[in-house]
Amino acid sequence: MRILTAQRVILMVLASGIGCGESAPDIIILSQDTTHTSADRTALSDVFSDSDGTSSTDASGRRSDDLSMPIPSEVAEAPDTGGTERVDISAPASDTAAPADDTYAPANDTESVVDTEQPQDATNIGSDTDTPSDINDNDDVSESEDTELAGDVATLEDTDETPDTEPSTDTVPPQEDTDTPPIEPAPNLLANPGFEDGAEPWNIWGGAQRLEGNAYLGTWAVQATNGNGAEQLVVNLEPNATYRLTGWGKTLATEPMLVGVKNYGGPQKAIQFSSPDYEEGTLLFTTGFSNTTAVVFAYKHQGTEPGYADDLSLQLESVETNTPIWSDEFNGEGPLDTTKWTFEEGFVRNEELQWYQSDNAFQEGGNLVIEGRTENKPNPNYIPGSTSWKTNQETINYSSASVITKDLFSFQYATVVVRAKVTNFAGTWPAIWTLGLDCQWPSRGEVDIMENYGGNILANFAWGTNTMWNPMWDSSQWPVADFGAGWTDSFHIWELQWTDTQMTILLDGQVLNDVDLNTTINGSAECAGENPFQQPHYLLLNLALGSNGGSVENLDFPTQYLVDYVRIYE
Predict the structure, then answer these.
(1) Which residues contact 234 (CB under 8 A, 6 or more apart)?
(2) What is the CA radius of gyration of the chain?
(3) Residues 91/85/493/409 CA torsion (nearest 10 deg)
(4) What is the C-alpha separation between 240 and 235, in angstroms, rounded?
(5) Can you point out the beta strands (E) in 287-366?
(6) How many other C-beta atoms can be found within 10 angstroms of the C-beta atom of residue 277?
(7) DSSP letter at 335?
(8) What would the pLDDT profile of 25-41 be if each residue is shown by its tens digit?
(9) Is the pTM of this model over 0.70?
C-alpha cells in the first residue's frame, strides 16, 4: 500500500454490527468518534473515491486577505495568503501516529442495544500547508444513528415481536396487485458476500481463514479466532446517506463474533453474535458528509474457539439524511443565482495575474464553472507612474472569477461541504475558503478548506499576531502525486466541520488538518484577545492565476475549475 507523507506546521509569518439461538445479537459501538483530535496527527490511507487587506510580507505561500485491521498511512504542507488577506509560508514538519487497537465491548442482554464507546486510533494529518490524507481507522463525523435487530430483539427505534402462535389459517390471502410493479430490493454492495468465490476482495488476515463447512448458505464462510478476521473496502457510496448492514454469525466460544462497519464518517459499529447457532443481525449507519467509502468487517477479538460469519449484505436505505440550511447545486444554465453569490472585481490580491470579473463564472452541465482566460483589454484603473501593481498595469492579460457570499449569507459553527474538481495544473490556484466578517486580515480569521497549487492540496487556518499583516498559520500540505493516477479526473468532497471549540478540514472523509480554537486568539495588532473563529464567516470560491500558482507560460487556456455543489449544514 502506498504511504502518503503529510507535513504540518504552526508558524508565524514574520514580515511577509437473528436467528434461532437462545440469545439474539446485540448492536454495539466499538469505538469513539475520533475525528476531532488535534495535536499529533497520523497519515491517512490512500483511498480517495469518486469524491481582503494587502500583506506587506515578503514570504511566499499564503493568501493574505478497530477492531478490524488498521490501515497504515502518512502526508506535507505549505501555507497561503489571501488577497489583502494572504501571505504564504512553508515550514513542513511530518507527524505520524501508529493506529491503536479497538477494545472489545461486552454484550448486554438480548433485549437491549448497547452503545458502549471505547477509544480507537485516530488518524489525523498535520502539515504546514493544506494537503489530503489517507483513510484512517478513525472516522470524524460523529452522529447518533438508529440501529435495528431482526426477530425478537429490541432496537433503538422499535421492536418487532414474534407472535407466540401461528397465524390463523382461515385468513384470506392478500390479492396480488397486478398494476403495481414489484419493488426491487436494493442491490448488495458487497462483493463475494458469502465467501463462495475465493478470498477476494476480502482482506482475510491475522490467522483468520475462509473455511469450507460451517457455512450458513453455500459451502464457505469466514472463520476468526483470537484478534483476527476479514474486511472489505466498499467504494462509491453516497455521502450523507443511510445504509443497512446485515449478516449471519455464530460463535463456538463465550466471546462473540462481530460483524460491523468503520471508516464511514461515524463511530465504528458492530453486531455481536453470541450463539453457537447462526443468527441474523442488522444495523444502520449514516455516511459522513464527505465520506464515500466504508470498511465492512467480520472479526473476533479474543478466545481460541472460533466464530463464523457468512452471507453479509450492504444496502442503501435512504439518501440525503440531513438537509442543508444553505446550498447551491448549480443545476441551472448560464449566470449564477445573484441572491446567493456576488463577485470580486479587478486585481484583488497577491499580485496575481488575473482580473476578476463575473463573466468568468457560470453554470453549465450541473456545475459552477470558473474559467481562466487570456485577455487583451485596457485596465480601467490604470494610473501612469503608479507604484501599485493594481494600477500600474496598462493592460489586462488574463481574467478569472471569484464568487463569494459576502453580504448575502454568512455562517458560524456549521459544516461546509463542497464537491469540486481541480486540475493541479501549473499556473492555477483554485481555492475554497472563508473569511470572518469583522476585523482586518489576518485578525478576521481565514480558513482554507482547499487550495491547490505547486502540485499540492492545502488545508490551513490563519489568525492575527502582534504584528499587522503577519498571520499565525496552522497549515498542512499533501502532494497530489501521492493520491494516485487519475485523481484529478474525478470530483472530490471537501468538508469543514466547525464547532465552538474546534475546526476540522477533511477531504473525501479523511482529516487533512484541524485546530483547537482555544489556541487561535488574536495578538495585539488588531482585535486583540478576540477569537476570529468565534464570529460569522462568509464563503469564497475562486480560481487565481500565477503568483503562488506558478508560471502560466505552459498553461493551456481557457482553463476551468469545476464545483458540483456547495452545502452548508447546522
Answers:
(1) 189, 190, 293, 294, 295, 296, 314
(2) 26
(3) 150
(4) 14
(5) 294-300, 307-318, 326-328, 342-343, 354-356, 361-364
(6) 12
(7) S
(8) 666 765 433 333 333 34
(9) yes
